[in-house]
Amino acid sequence: MFPKKGGMGMIPGLEMSQPLIWVMIAVIFAVIEGLTMGLTTIWFTVGGVAACIIALIGGPLILQVAVFLIVSVILLYFTRPLAEKRLKVGHEKNNIEQLIGKTALVMETIKPYHPGQARLNGLVWTAVTEQESEILEKNELAIVVRVEGVKLVVEKVKGEEK
Fold first, then answer.
1. Beta strand pairing status for 116-120 and 103-108?
2. Quick one: which of 99, 98, 94, 96 has its CA closest to 142?
3. How far apart are CA 156 and CA 111, in angstroms?
4. Is pTM beyond 0.85 here?
5. 98-135 confidence digits (pLDDT tens)
6. Alpha-carbon torsion 6, 9, 15, 16, what sign?
7. Which residues fall within 8 angstroms of residue 9, CB to CB, at 6 or more apart?
8. For the chain, how big is the Rg over CA atoms in Å?
9. 144 and 99 Cβ atoms separated by less than 8 Å
10. Across the chain, how many H-helices and E-strands are there?
């Protein structure tokens, strides 16, 4: 019933060596990383390998767990931001965010508090301006400031004053 020396008996009658358990932990974290690509669990994979090495040289369980946690947390804290920057993991602009800063052609006059229409990337959008004194006439150019739902918030292109 009790585990034999050098092994960990988690299930009565089933005996696994400590290095094997750490390898399994490392593989599980590697699979999770492969599925998520979030650059979070990969560091726990490395921690599992480090703990496996400690288990292979005969280190006590408490040392194995400490090495696993210390290596994982240090790698996560110090290298994740560098890896994200190099691999450009994380936030990518979606199609809507890519419209911000683009130039649209006013198709229907846009007045303060009265939406008009603007063509951008071949699509006609409802467009508004937040500038109280700004009127964008038909065929003028406007810069997209942001997108709210299905509406463009635009402002007059500088240098296009009449």
1. antiparallel
2. 99
3. 11
4. no
5. 888 899 999 999 988 889 999 998 889 999 998 888 88
6. negative
7. 1, 2, 3, 15, 16
8. 29
9. yes
10. 3, 7
* Topology adopted by domain 97-155: OB fold (Dihydrolipoamide Acetyltransferase, E2P) (2.40.50)
What sign does the dihedral 58-62-66-72 (CA atoms) show? positive
Contacts of residue 65, defined as CB under 8 A and 6 or more positions apart, other chains included, come to 51
Could you tell me where in the chain the CATH 2.40.50.140 domains are found?
97-155
Q: What are the C-alpha distances in Å from 93 to residues 28, 51, 88, 99?
A: 31, 39, 12, 10
**67 near 76, Cβ under 8 Å?**
no
Coil vs helix vs strand at 52: helix
Own/partner pairs, 31-37, CB within 8 angstroms, 24+ separation:
37/89
Q: What share of the chain is helix, strand, coil (3-state, %, to 5)?
A: 40, 30, 35
